[in-house]
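Record type: monomer structure entry
Structure origin: computed from sequence
Chain ID: A
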Amino acid sequence: MASSLSAFVIVGIFYLYLGLVTSFIARSNSGSADTYYLNTNFSQNDPLLTRRPSLKDIFAGPIISSLDPSLGQENAPVVIVEFSDFTCEYCQNQEEVIKKVISVYKDKLKLLWKDYPDSNINSISYKAAVAARCAGEQNKFWVYHDALFKEGIKDNNTFLKFASELKLNENKFNDCLNSGRSQLLINDNIKEANALDITGVPFVYINDQEVMGEATYEELERIIKIELAKVKK
């Protein structure tokens, strides 16, 4: 994991060049630094002198950012990053496994959600991601997330129905749906997933260790124990 100033500057330059990190910085109001898993060979090069870099040149793992919804311990030694889609049946199954993992290792884990829906902004998949992020503006992301997975999405009316049932301020919710704020966050997640060569969901990172496809509790637990062992050394 790169935490040095030089690595941070490299990432900053790259993202400014690509126009992606600019949006992260503009929308972040937490004041806290994000965490980047970098390819070690990239840091040996000067991005101002070498060829135009790509996202794939830079990243070895996901961006840990306060812009994405999270659960668990803020400074946990193990971070699970979940790229997912509310309309994916396999993702729904994975949710149940991750919930069990979180309940068992709740003092040692942080869960970070990343949206990887259908990129068509008019699709139910994309609209569900937007709606959940808008619920998140009222601190209801996770309960809205649970409703989408448990009850399913019948049509576009489902999003307002859940907002009403969860007693969200509907004016604020509708304003968010129409503002484009959530779309910017979701598009950043999609760009990040594409840069990491993620071609399907669910896709999970445990720190920088990849878990492709639907994983069992035992598979996730094995990697978690390996990562926790690293901390003790």
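Annotation 1: Residues 1-60 form one domain.
Annotation 2: Residues 202 and 213 are 5 Å apart (CA to CA).
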